[in-house]
Amino acid sequence: MSPRLILGSASPRRAELLATVGIVPDAVLPPEIDEEPRPAELPRPYAERLAREKAAAVDAGPDDVVLCADTTVALGRRILGKPADAGQAAAFLTALAGRRHRVITAVAVRRGPRVWQRTSVSAVKVRRLSDAELNGYLASGEWQGKAGAYAIQGRAAAFIPWISGSFSGIVGLPLAETATLLAAAGYAVAGR
Question: Which residue, 154, 153, 176, is CA-closest to 166?
Fold first, then answer.
C-alpha cells in the first residue's frame, strides 16, 4: 500500500496534471514561504531552492510523501515571477514577445528526512504580439498568478508557435520527472 501523498501546492493545474496520470493526492496543503529571489540569484537555483523550501515547510507525518514544485520563467538571467499587476504583466509579455525564454520547473519530493529533486528546463518562443492581442490577453485576467504572466494551457497558446522540452513542465509539473521522484520515495505510480 502506498503512503499518503500530500500535494504542497495551491495550483489547480498541478492537481489536474497529476490526475491525467491517475494520481490523486490524499491532501492538498500549500505551504507559506517567502518567494522573493535572493540578490543575484539565478533562475534555476532559485526554482530549485523554492521547491525544496516548500517541501520542507509542509506539515506531514514521517511516512507521508510530500510533493512540491516551483515554476520560474527566465529571460536570460532575469526571473519573471508572478506579475503584481496588469502593468507588470504587460511589461513581461512585451519582453517575451519575439524571443525565446526558458521555463524552469523544479520538483521536490520529501518522505521523512529524505528529499529527492529533479528539474525540467524547457524553451518557449512567444511570437510578437499586436497591441490588440496584448490588451485582450491582459483584459482576460488569465495572467494573474502565472509566472511570466501567461498560461500556455490557456489563451496564450495562440501566441506560442514553438516549444522544446516538457509541455507539462511548462504548465507547472513535469510528469515524467515527477513520476520518477514519487517512485523513488515509495509512492506507487501506475504504469511504472
Answer: 176
